[in-house]
Specification:
48% strand, Jelly Rolls, single chain, 183 residues, 6-stranded antiparallel sheet, mainly beta
Length: 183
Amino acid sequence: MYKRLNREFEIDSLTKTGKKIEYGIDTPMGFAGIKYSYVRLKEDPLLKVIPAKYRDRCTFSLMEVNHKIPAHTDSGIEAIINFYMTDDRMITQFYHPRDDAETVQIANQTDGAIFHDKYLKKSDRFMAHSKQAYLLNVSHPHALVPTPDGPKPIRRRAICMQLLDTSWDEAIDMLKETGYIDD
């Protein structure tokens, strides 16, 4: 469901160039959820994790989270690499859904879904730290859960490298080929 890359990455600078998509709700105190923005950044150090022949499959966006994110699967993607920029003490929790799991979709989800906790069994989890990178299989239900001792307000930031038209197994093989994950 996830693999930590064996090196750290420094994101020197970036510029948001526009809103890509957001999932969440508007509240009297502002938006609560997860936002993705188009971004301009120095991509070369991040692209090195993928063999050159596959780099045309990669797109980048800035992920910003300011609230707990319920268990969900992502829309239109299976494998992503998150390059974390902040120490936010949030847990990425993966789940195994029951066979009879009921799901809902919000308006801008395509094939992704949101899961109710009662249909899920906890699986693997991790807490990312600044400069770490993780390959995630986002076709499996996963949630972002703040810890009680985490910063308030929540401010998770990561550069997301989407691996378009790439399966989880293909992504693993790519990262093994470049030496960024171990067996």
